[in-house]
Design goal:
elongated; mainly alpha
């Protein structure tokens, strides 16, 4: 019969091995993220898709198996996607044709020449030379066209990723509970309650964040479409939707939608004065979004200082590009919850 010392030594060894396993898992995840950034991006997007669909699967799971629930939800998602594509496809096609019909090459050339003259005059006042804006834009256009040829192999990779993301999401969604239990199994008993509490708070924050993000996209899209329609901008629906969807990219997203709207108005009218109200529209929407919409829809969803958001977005962009910028806020928010809960746990043990 083992004595108490043997049992205590065995327990210590087991706890030590579990901690080593946990550290190895974290190191392995870090290595995958660093060295296999492409795969890491796919997994992040697939995990996000699985997270967003998990509430629906969990509700259906009450009446059927997890696998069946997952297949039903993804079947509905595919059906909705095809339906929206069928409905919006002709609208998008018509909007693109409107842009093509409204753009006049001679007007665009005239605008570029006027800009070149004004900017060259301004440059001369500060001792600079002519800018040759037309030649620079022509060179950029040639390089961009050549870049399209180089991007052809990458398009195959993009198509592959579009197929792989839902495929990975199906497995993550189906096996999500087992994966969660498997990860928690590595947590020492003394940190078990802390882990569950942290996961619960992260789940609440992420849920609130993504619900708020969907509402923000809808509000910005409606405001943009209405404003562009009143300003008679070609493809106002397409540009407005682009402006709304790109709000998922903090700070940079609004610049994308606004730039497209201004360029289309400029190319269709050949007038800087006509494009100015479009620029003013997007500046107004951006201010309203930052000052009113975001505080209203997000409330306390993510407890992050604007400087923290800026740093998180910049760092994520360096490693993961646009995908990193989109996921920077939720990942940073989750990390802050872990740090906050960890600090509270350490303080509790210090004073207990």
């Amino acid at each position: 019969m083992p004595n108490a010392d043997d049992v205590s030594i065995g327990t210590l060894v087991q706890n030590f091995l579990r901690r080593i396993q946990g550290v190895l898992v974290l190191v392995g995840i870090g290595a995958v993220v660093y060295f296999l950034q492409g795969i890491a991006q796919l997994l992040l997007v697939a995990a996000l898709l699985a997270y967003l669909l998990n509430p629906l699967v969990s509700r259906l799971e009450v009446r059927t198996s997890r696998t069946t629930s997952t297949l039903i939800v993804f079947g509905l998602l595919v059906g909705v996607t095809i339906g929206l594509g069928t409905l919006l496809g002709p609208v998008v096609q018509q909007q693109v044709q409107d842009v093509q019909a409204s753009v006049d090459a001679q007007r665009v050339t005239a605008v570029i020449e006027r800009l070149d003259r004004r900017l060259s005059e301004l440059s001369a006042q500060f001792g600079g030379g002519p800018l040759n804006l037309k030649e620079q834009l022509s060179q950029e256009a040639r390089e961009w066209t050549n870049g399209l040829v180089d991007m052809a192999p990458g398009l195959l990779g993009l198509v592959t990723n579009v197929v792989l993301v839902p495929f990975l999401a199906v497995f993550l969604l189906r096996d999500g509970p087992q994966i969660k239990r498997g990860l928690i199994r590595f947590v020492p008993n003394r940190y078990f309650e802390f882990s569950l509490e942290a996961l619960h708070k992260i789940d609440i924050q992420l849920g609130n964040y993504f619900r708020g993000l969907v509402l923000e996209i809808a509000i910005v899209s409606v405001l943009s479409i209405a404003g562009l329609w009143m300003l008679k901008v070609p493809a106002f629906v397409l540009v407005g939707l682009l402006a709304g969807i790109t709000t998922v990219i903090p700070y940079a997203g609004s610049l994308i939608g606004g730039s497209v709207g201004v360029l289309i108005k400029l190319a269709s009218t050949g007038s800087l004065a006509a494009a100015a109200p479009v620029l003013l529209l997007f500046l107004t929407i951006q201010i309203a979004d930052e000052a009113f919409i975001q505080p209203l829809v997000f409330a306390q969803a993510v407890d992050l200082h604007p400087l923290e958001v800026l740093l998180a977005v910049w760092i994520a962009a360096q490693f993961f590009g646009v995908v990193g910028m989109v996921l920077a806020i939720p990942v940073t928010s989750a990390g802050k919850v872990v740090v906050s809960e960890g600090a509270a746990l350490i303080q509790q043990y210090q004073f207990s």
